[in-house]
Amino acid sequence: MAKAATATMQAGDSEPTSLGAALADAATAAVIALLLAMPILAYRSVEQAVSLGMEARWGAIAIGVAAVFAGRLAINLLGPRLSGPVGELFAALKSAIVRVFHAIGGWRTVLGMLLMLAMAASGAGKLSTPRWFDLLLIVPLAIGVWRRSPAWLFLGLALFFPFAPGASRYWIENFGILVLIYVMLGWGLNVVVGLAGLLDLGYVAFYAVGAYSYALLAQTFGLSFWICLPLAGILAALWGVLLGFPVLRLRGDYLAIVTLAFGEIIRVVLINWQSLTGGPNGISGIPRPTLFGLEFKADGGFADYFGLEHTSLHRIIFLYYIILVLALVTNWVTVRLRRLPVGRAWEAMREDEIACRSLGINITNTKLTAFSIGAMFGGFAGAFFATKQGFISPESFTFWESAIILAIVVLGGMGSQVGVAVAALVMIGGTELFRELEIYRMLVFGVAMVAVMVWRPRGVVSGRVPTIALKETRRIGGDLVKEGHG
Amino acid sequence: MTAGSRPILEVDGLGMRFGGLVAVDGLAFSAQRGQITALIGPNGAGKTTVFNCVTGFYRPTSGRITVQHDDGRSFALQSMPGHRICHQAKVARTFQNIRLFAGMSLLENLLVAQHNKLMRASLFTVGGLIGLPGFAAAERAAVEIAKHWLERVGLVDRADDAAGDLPYGDQRRLEIARAMCTGPALLCLDEPAAGLNPRESRELNQLLLSMRGENGLSILLIEHDMGVVMEISDHIVVLDYGKKIAEGTPAQIRNDPAVIAAYLGVEDEETAIAVTTGARP
Fold this sequence. Notes:
heterodimer, A: two-stranded antiparallel sheet, two-stranded antiparallel ribbon, 20 helices, about 65% helix, about 5% strand, B: alpha/beta, Rossmann fold, 2 domains, 4-stranded antiparallel beta sheet, about 20% strand
């Protein structure tokens, strides 16, 4: 009997729960259940006379949520008071659930898994795609669970997005592609601002250099997108070095002002150099990318080759995967660079430039590599932007763009890849989602930014993970990590 | 004269002025190979200025600073770019106000110190990026060196913690370990015992004495804690108002009237007594 009592005490976290706390806890559980139930239970596809229709099932959600609330309340109130064999069974069950939960990687993984299963289960989307497309979702999901990393869940969602139910051309183009462009730009700027600690307010300049490089190279020399893409990156990197040289000695506010000016200079040159850039009229008719030489056109293109019916959606989905791959390459390179001496030197420079110098690190080279690699990713994104739009003009490369990209990096948490991706999704995706709010969405947006900065001053994901460990990797808190002074 | 018998560091006619202020004036001294040389003097005597000149943070107005390696190569530090002084002339330093990479782990701090070696091993990033095996091996070797120094300063258990999380005394030792990971021939320590309690200070003495002469390591240090200076120094150089007023062994300095006068002149009797008696102030 004494043994049973001990087990019961452990099961109930040692203290009998008060009614108020039990109710609050049950309410939290009910809210989580509601959030989870929405994507899974809320709608059910039913066959109607001519097409597929949706049937709302709010009743099912209400029952589910009520059941969770009642069950949780019962556990909270009765759990600690149970004794004897029932109490032991209860304790064993509880610890088993907790163990399973931890084994699959915590609530983020569970949430992602449920979301994905819901998407996979709800079947093919706009295109009549074969079911094996679900593998795009399920394989990363399996890897994510196996490696206990929520990042894979994001990857699965991103891979599956064009085929997800409800993903129309509008959503892929104005939500998916747009968000990914900013994810890539955010990751690119993250090298300069987040890792090297150099405040760059003119990042859009490299985006512009990349876009105009591709447009001009493609139109003047008739080069394909895949040849121009690396060239655009290299040209942008060169401009990064050019910017880097004059600002080597500058720090903080002074560096910010010079980079800001650099961004404006590029834009003003683009407006005024009429003979080369077309001035304010921009450049139109920029060639589209091809898939191993296959164009996305009505006759003799991609659709014909694969025996599909031609639709402009193919091109959009292709563009979506190009930018996804570009963004993933950016991420892969950045993550790898962080573990190389150059990446450690960037972070060390952000922490203390003088100490770096005393250890024999060439600050000039280190700063220039940070600028040029960040600029290169901006150039890639610019080339993609040009080919996606088919038309570019200096209007697309205003200071506002630099500010947005910097805001993504700062809100996401400087140096954090996942944080930057989340921030891009929320900031860019959010503005698209709330387009109906019209002018008020900017207000909502501003309030949200202030809120994040008040509650999480170091960004959504603060702190950093060391790049190497002797025994075990321990996360370093955001309060110790410096923002850099230049 | 063979390289072995020449001092590791020779400072000759060193002058440093900031506008109208003459911080160091015609200073000449040398630090012998495998010995601990201390630079002492009242506040404002110009010790840290000398340090900054030696380690390339200031470019001296006049004079020569020469480092002579075992293999006979010599380097004129007064005209070298700052980062080369550590990389090529093998002079490493610590700072009076500790300058660790606070947001990086201890191990990372010590790997950053081996930057140049690892940079070459990664073929200037290209090889490391595509995963050539040479870099992985070089990194393992660098980790071994880091581990060795963490063990020496007794911080190996905290290798994966943030450097900024360490207590003050541990941070001082970590900074010394970091400087040692650059593989220096001359280690310059700017007040290594400042802010240490008596026990930590004794441990520091032990550490410095054990490091001296190991692989031909020579140490140049600035210190206010006379207990440390008198106990571990082989040679002491005393500065006042940017000029050398005395140099010699601890016993000679203790009895030097000019030194006593200089320290009494700063109205800090305790320090003056400490100098003369060799006691801890």
